[in-house]
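Write out the bound-state structure for manganese (II) ion.
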Amino acid sequence: MSTASGLLVDIAEVGVDRQRGGYSRHGFDRVELELREWFTAEAVKRGLDVRVDGNGNLWAWWGAPGPNAVVTGSHLDSVPGGGAFDGPLGVVSALAAVDALRARGFVPRRPFALLVFAEEEGGRFGVACLGSRLLTGRIDADAARRLTDPDGVTLADAVRSAGLDPAGLGRDAKALRDIGCFVELHVEQGRGLVDLAAPIGMASSILAHGRWRFSFSGEGNHAGATPIGDRRDPMLPASNVVLAARRAASTVDGARATVGRILPTPGGTNVIASSVDLWLDARAGDDATTRAVVAEITAAAEAAAQAEGCLLRVTEESYGDTVHFDAGLRDELAAALGGVPALPTGAGHDAGILAADVPTAMVFVRNPTGVSHAPAEFAEPADCEAGVAALVTVLDQLNR
Ligand code: GLV
Ligand code: MN
Ligand code: MN
Ligand code: MN
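---
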């Protein structure tokens, strides 16, 4: 019988990022494909029937596939330089839960599947929760096929290289019908459970959040030969976005705004950039507040671009409104787990995307560092096993 921490050790060397630290595992890249093969082998070892849907999400069925299944899982990809737990903990816990359920003589009375979503972090193609957005039709399939990674590879080409037909990308009504309910176990991405001295909890809601691309264009020129007054330097309005993001989010309770990625072109120390792209991640408690924060940042960006004689184009790359997890399923979890704390989360999840179509819930495992999307992300082995035990209890309860 496997433990979640033992299974994490099995994949500890896959996708280590020696430059950034942590892990870089991105949708359909060599590393993620290796992890998918590993998962497939583990599922097959357990007698599960592994299938890949048209969007590249991996399903492992315990018994015959069918509608209205109890489904659990998460994702195997990471942000660039991410931690070991965000995503993989939910996948290894699902495998460990199968072992524990089998050991106690569990027999699925309704269809039962593990589900691994593709490209949850958007670390390669820029759109978070891509596999679940495609499955639910929350992203247009043609637009998705045209998404490109930083090397110019389209999603269509990437899935083709992974042996899938890009024509199969898009809303999958049958797969949706198959999910009767989805429970995602995840490492907590803050200090909520640490502060409550609780090893596990469950999710109450997810902040409204989205990603916006700000593209500034100016005039590329020589860093030494161009007088300051003659410049149209897009780095100036870009730096204003960073400051405006902090300013706008600081004035609204619970709002977050981050510029974590900036790309000057051509990107030379002695070159005034001709263009700068940056990506804003903004989140808040509700739709109107999130939109207001982004509008304030956009207005500052426009003013700064104009002052420098630069042009600005803003594109919304993805967006999702506040998610309130299914009340009925939450009640079932609370009853099964004996009143564990329920916490809101600022992080996005496939369970949040699916929540508009099917009942979903999340189990959180305490993270003593409170850090996530970085190598310091952590969960103690004992807490991981408490997470598996909780998942086992919940899955058993839902198998009616
Ligand atoms: C994904 O983990 C996100 O919340 O950005
Ligand atoms: Mn994440
Ligand atoms: Mn995650
Ligand atoms: Mn996520």
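---
The first strand starts at residue 49 and ends at 52.
The mean pLDDT is 97.
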